Amino acid sequence: MRSAMARSSRAATGRTSSRWDENRRRRVGSGGPGLGSNPASAGAPLALASASSSLTRRCGMTTTAVATGRVGSAARLPVRGLVCALLEGDEEAADGLVMGLVAAGRSRMSVFADLLHPAQAQVGNLWYSGHATSADEVRIAAAIRRIVALLEPTPAPKPVRRGSSCVIAVPHDDPHDLGMTMLTLALQDDGWSTVQVGAARALADLADVVRDRRPQLFCLSAAVLPPLPQVERLIGAVRAVRIPVLVGGAAFGRRPDLHGSLGADGLGTDVRIGVVMARRLAGR
Ligand code: B12
Predict the structure, then answer these.
(1) 118 lines ligand 1 (CB under 6 A)
(2) What are 153-198's pLDDT values in tens digits?
(3) Which of 126, 150, 174 is the last residue of a domain?
């Protein structure tokens, strides 16, 4: 049964790949519809089944992973289906996929780490290979932000100790704040109280903010880093007052040795690892 399913899924994936690329080439070439401009999907119920069948129709894409993506199962989440829906500007289908998983018992953190983050990374890869435009990238980042805001908290059964608090920041001038937002919400679900410091604050000020707040943990999320000596000074200043520093985001994830050379205590390559490391580093 299992191997038959795997075979049919592989076969379908082989078929869909070229069809999807073909659709995509046509759309990128012709400018394509904008976000939410798919009148055919307007008013459709946010049901996983209808989202799946609509995607299968339009992208020729299997959504077997949705059907088998039960909580606790090892099945992949429908990253490809979500990316397809987002590229098509079909918000109903995208919402349907995500909400179906939540209704099936997925935690918000799992949706972030296993679906939204990989989907956004996939969009970056499509841009690299010329299958998505930079306008697609901006539009989809906005759509993912909207989906993130729709998700209700899913509190952890065994939260961290009361009084656990964390300051989370992005460096100034770094517009990539989706990761910080996801991490903040995932930590809140794990029982932390959080303070976010946006990209408007200069790195030099951040150490003062952290020292004033006295959290149990400081998290830095970055896709684009300021000069490294500035980052190293910030990390050193925070650690000097015995607050552990956890880092993450594309700038660190792509150079796994960087966090150590800058003096940080740990690197979280996704939000799930981040939540585990936060507990461990802060002894909560
Ligand atoms: C969407 C996007 C944008 C959007 C950002 C919208 C927004 N509000 O966030 C826009 C269009 C604005 C943008 C702009 C730019 N971008 Co951009 N962007 C992306 C893209 C496609 C996705 C980023 C994203 O949101 N991912 C989803 C989030 C959820 O993932 P994440 O941040 O990694 O977070 C996850 C984990 O890393 C972790 N995490 C994140 N932070 C932390 C922190 C801690 C402590 C922990 C534990 C965990 C953790 O948890 C999250 C969930 O699992 C990536 C491509 C990619 N492959 O990532 C490029 C990318 C990040 N961008 C990049 C670049 C270079 C730019 C520009 C400089 C391009 C340019 N030349 O103009 C500009 C920035 C201009 C500026 N002012 O500096 C590069 C960064 C290069 C690098 N450091 O290696 C990337 C990787 C693309 C590439 N070229 O490879 N971008």
Answers:
(1) no
(2) 999 999 999 999 999 999 988 999 999 999 999 999 999 999 999 8
(3) 150
Where residue 249 falls (left for φ over 0; alpha for ψ -120 to 50; beta otherwise) is left
177 lines ligand 1 (CB under 6 A): yes
In ligand 1, which atom is closest to the CA atom of 219? 45
Domain encompassing residue 112? 2-150
Tokens 């150490």 — which residue?
207
User: pLDDT tens digits for 12-70?
Assistant: 333 333 334 444 444 433 333 222 223 233 333 334 445 455 445 545 444 444 444 55
Is 141 in the same domain as 56?
A: yes
- Looking at the structure, tell me whether residues 270 and 198 fall in a common domain: yes
Are residues 14 and 143 located together in one domain of the fold?
yes
The residue from 124, 150, 176 where one domain ends is 150
